[in-house]
Amino acid sequence: MTASSDTPLARLKELGLTLPPAAAPVANYVPFARAGALLFISGQLPIGANGVDPAHQGKLGVGVALEAGQAAARQAALNVLAQANAAVGDLSKLRAVRLGGYVNSAPDFASLPQVVNGASDLVAAVLGENGKHARFAVGVAQLPLNAAVEVEGIFEILS
Description:
With 159 residues, the chain is an alpha/beta fold. 29% of the residues lie in helices and 26% in strands. The protein has helices at 8-14, 66-88, 112-127; strands at 32-35, 38-44, 59-60, 63-64, 94-104, 134-140, 149-157. It starts with 7 loop residues before the first helix and ends with a strand.
């Protein structure tokens, strides 16, 4: 990356992305919680441009292609970053610790890690060296609003 990409927001711009507004919770939970220097971001769906519905719905392995799943994971991760930014006001104050990816998938769909790479790749690209993280990827029978993917995150708040 060039010198112009020294900040997460500059990297987002270079990727042709902007942070969406942080989504309001749709049930009895908070979108993020802080414990000491750790910031926990609740699971985020790939909410689309209308701010309400997932941009990617359905099951991987049954009508949803791998590439669409990766795009869903990328959008969900962008929403994780939006929540993180709302929590601390500056993405450069964060280091990714762990991402978790839930994939709405058929029982025999085996490319779960490749789907969640969409989220991991985005976080690494936006946060640079601070974007390297541990991760899990699991297949589930269903997700809220029939979303294809849900992503959660844990970040360290840097002093």
